[in-house]
Amino acid sequence: MGHQFSFEERIGYLLGIISIMVPFSVIVMRDFPYTGLSLSFLALSSVVFLIHRRKTTFVTCLFAAACASSLFLFVRANISLAMLNIITIIYINSVGILVSRNQPLSFISVALAPVTLILSSLSIQTPKFPVHLSRFHAIPHRLVTSIVITAGLLILIIPLLSSANPLFEHLVRQTISSIHLEKLFAWTGSLFDVINIVRYIIAGILFIMLPRIATYAVQEAPGTSWFSFIKNHTLPLFMPKVAVSIVLFIFFITQFQLYFSSAETLMAMGYTQSQYAREVFAQLSVVALIIFGLIYNDKQNKGASKTTTLILIIEALFLTGMAYKSDYDYSSLWGFTHKRLYGFAVASWILGLVILFFNAYVKNSTGAFVKQGIAYTIAIILAINIANFDYLIYHYRPATLPNGVDHEYLSRYLSADAVSYDTEFQELVNRIRPQVPKNREESLELQHDLDNASTLAYHMSYSNNKYAGGFDIRTFNLSEYQMYLRVKNMSFEEYYILDSKKRSLIWSPIVVEEEFRHITPTELFVDSPERNNQR
C-alpha cells in the first residue's frame, strides 16, 4: 500500500512548490510580471482558503474577491491599478487568516493585519506545515553526500591537471565536445547570474516563512490581546464630539457662502478654481474620516452621547456630499483624470461606510459593521477595476485645458486599458501636418504635439516588439495584447520623417519677432502654469 500523505504533508509540499514558483514567476527583466503575479497570488490565496478551518460565507467571499483581484492583474495594464490590486490581495488574505484564527475584527486589527501576520509568524519555532521530502521519496543521504564530494573534487582537479599537461587538456576538450558538455556548462553558468541569485534568496525566505504563516493561520487566537483591549476600552469622547459638532456647524455656514462665490471672488481670496476644488475635496474627505473614527470608537449609546453621534453622522454625510460636489463640478469643467475618478471612488467609499455605520448604530448591531465595511471596501476596489478609469477618461470625458483637449495627458498618462493609442496617435498626426509655427506659442504647441505623438509611437512600437515574436508568458497582459492586435500592422517610418521635418521648423530662423528672439531653447519645453494648474 502506498504512503498516504496527511493534510499537513500535502500543504507542506504545496507550500514548497509555491516557494519555488513565486520568485521565478515575478522576478523578470524589463517588463512587469502581470501573469506571474496573477498566478502567484491565485496560488497563495488558494492555500489560505484550503487551510481555513471555518469556510463560512464571508470567508468564501474573501477568497472569491482575492481571486478576482488576481485575475485583474492579468487583465488590466495600468500599473497604479496593479499596485492597488496587489495591496488588496495582501489585505484580503491577511483578514482571512485573522478570521481563521477566530480573532475579533476591528478597523485597527484589519489595518495592521499584514504587519501583525509577518511579525507573529517569525516567532513560531516549529511550523505545522514543514517543507521537506518524505522519507519514502528521499535519496539516501550518504549517496547525495558522496556525489557532492566527487563532483567538487573533479571540478577542482581536472582544470589543474589540464593546465599542466597539453595532451590531457586536449583529451578533456574532446570528451567535453563529444558529449556536448559545453552546453551544460553554459546553462550551469546562467543559473548563477544576478537575477537567479535573487530568486534563490527569495525562494529560501519563502521556504522559511510560508509554513510559519500557515501555522499561524490555523492557531486559535489568544483570549486577550492589545487589539481586544483597544476595542473594549471606553474613551471619554463626549466632549470631543460636542466640540467637533460646533466647529462643523460654523464651517457649514461659511462653506455655503463660498459655494455662491464667483471666480473673481475666489481669485481675490488667493484661490484659483482648480486649487479650490482640489483642496476642498482633500480637506473635507480627511475631516469626514476623522469624524467617522470618532463616532466608531465611541462605545456609549445613551442620552446626549447618542444625540451627538447622530449629529456627527449627519454632518459627515454633508461633508462627503460637499467633497463629492467639488469633484463633480471640477470634472464637469475639465473632464476626467485619474485623480478625479479616484476622488469619486474615495467619496463613495466614505459615504458608504458612514451609511453602513448609521444603519448599524440605529439597529444597535455595530458588531457586524466591520465585516460589512470590509466587504464594501472590496466591492469599491473591484468596481474600480471593472469601470476601467483609463477607458472612461478617453472615451467619455477626456481631460481638457482652457485651449481644448489635454492631449499630453491622453498620450502620456493612459495605459493600454484606454484602447486609445492608435486613435489618439492619428488625431495628433492630423494636428501636426498643417502646423507651421510663426511665433513662440505656435512653436510650443507643435513641440507638445510632436512629443505626445512620439510617446504614443514608442508605446505601440514597444508593444509590437514585445508580442510580435516569442514573449515571456510571465509578462503577458490581456489589455496590452489587445492593443498589439490593433496596432501590429502600423508602420511609424512615415511619422518619424514628419517628426524630423516639423522639429526643424521649431528651430527655424523664420521666426523674427523680437519677443521670440530672446527665448532660450530650454524655455520652449517648459510647461505653462495654466497646464500644471489644470491637473
Quick structural summary:
The protein has 535 residues and is mostly helical.
Report on this model:
With 535 residues, the chain is mostly helical. The chain folds into three domains: 1-141 and 180-233, no CATH class; 235-383, no CATH class; 400-533, no CATH class. It has helices at residues 7-26, 34-50, 57-75, 79-100, 107-111, 113-122, 141-164, 166-178, 181-190, 194-218, 226-232, 238-259, 263-268, 273-296, 303-334, 338-362, 369-387, 389-395, 407-412, 421-432, 440-467, 478-487, 493-506, 514-517, 529-533, and strands at residues 400-401, 404-405. The chain has a two-stranded antiparallel ribbon. The longest helix is centred in the middle third of the chain and has 32 residues, at 303-334. Residues 133-139 and 509-532 have low confidence and may be disordered. Keywords: Membrane, Transmembrane, Transmembrane helix. It holds the Pfam family DUF4153. The chain crosses the membrane at residues 12-28, 34-51, 63-92, 104-122, 143-161, 197-218, 238-260, 280-296, 308-324, 344-362, 374-394.
